[in-house]
Amino acid sequence: MSPTCMTTADDPLPALLGALRSSCVMERLRAAKDLGRLGWLAREALPALVAVLHDTDPRVRESAAQAIGLMGPDALPTLVAMLDHGDKYVRRHAVWALAKLGPLARPALVNLCQALKDADPRTASGAAQALGNMGAEAADSVPALAEAMRGTNIVLCRLASKALSQIGLPALPTLIAHLHHADPFVRAESALAIGWMGPAAVAAIADLVQVVRGPQATVAEVTDTSGPAQPVLSTLPDSQAVTPPQVGDAGALSPEVNCRVYAAQALGRIGPAAATALMELRGSLVQAPEPVWQAVEQALRLVSGPAQ
């Protein structure tokens, strides 16, 4: 009879721990999965699962890693050590588990910053998510996340920018600086992240307006000497208002247009706090590509607030 067959409802751990030492791969695999289902209740099995991380079968190693990740804060030191494991699947489960811990994963911050450079793209991306889920507790990771944004991993760039937005005000100067990066993709992701921050990102208004206007904008386009500046509402009736391109739609646009669309959307998300940008937003409509025009129209509505 296999050890897993001897599991009792009162205390399944002895049989499962015995199964982890079985010469049968399938028994070890089932035991690791069953321990994962027990989660925190199986925390006493943590040392045995750590040993199984070096199992000869990759399926067993991965199941053990997943089980460890389901044991909550008690597994934090082990999860940190797993970030240096030679098996990428073990490292992936480590970063995913740390992401679920949120601010409780703060002791792993330095290790997660290093994991942003992992050769496995999913491990690196998971590290960015884990740092973002710490919120303001991950303020010290801003330089590492900024560097990750400038890499060639597009998914990592997106998740690093998202993490910076979750960190909040400590990361805002970095995101503003990236609005002027040479790579239009980095600029676009920075604008998107600033938009996620909402009204807290008021310090980025002037830079966002510059991005919306684009490289061909001139002062003449936004100057109106005929009278005092007035808040500009959309020229379209509410029934014909155009919804700006969403994140998925903007991906089909050129990189430069993406920048302008995301920057306009960010100003809209900042809302009435961006009222100082109304005149310049109005000027940005001159000769703007249709996607930019649509995004600016919506931003004008959101910044101007409800019609009085």
Radius of gyration based on Cα positions:
25 Å
* Number of distinct helices: 17
Strand content: under 5%
Largest sheet: none
What is the mean predicted local confidence, pLDDT?
Answer: 85
The gross shape turns out to be elongated
Compute the separation of the termini in Å. Answer: 79 Å
Poorly predicted parts: 1-8, 217-251
Helix content: 55-70%
Total strands: the figure is 0
Order of helices and strands: HHHHHHHHHHHHHHHHH
Secondary structure category: mainly alpha
List keywords for this structure.
17 helices; 57% helix; mainly alpha; 308 residues
Short structural summary:
The protein is mainly alpha-helical and 308 residues long.
Structural features, described:
Helix 1 (13-20) runs antiparallel to helix 2. The chain has helices at 13-20, 25-38, 46-52, 58-69, 76-82, 88-101, 109-115, 121-133, 142-149, 154-167, 172-178, 184-197, 205-213, 247-250, 255-270, 278-284, 290-304. It starts with 12 loop residues before the first helix and ends with a helix. Helices cover 57% and strands 0% of the residues. It is elongated and about 75 Å long. It is an all-alpha fold and 308 residues long. Mean pLDDT is 85; it is low at 1-8 and 217-251.
Topology:
Layout: H1 13-20, H2 25-38, H3 46-52, H4 58-69, H5 76-82, H6 88-101, H7 109-115, H8 121-133, H9 142-149, H10 154-167, H11 172-178, H12 184-197, H13 205-213, H14 247-250, H15 255-270, H16 278-284, H17 290-304
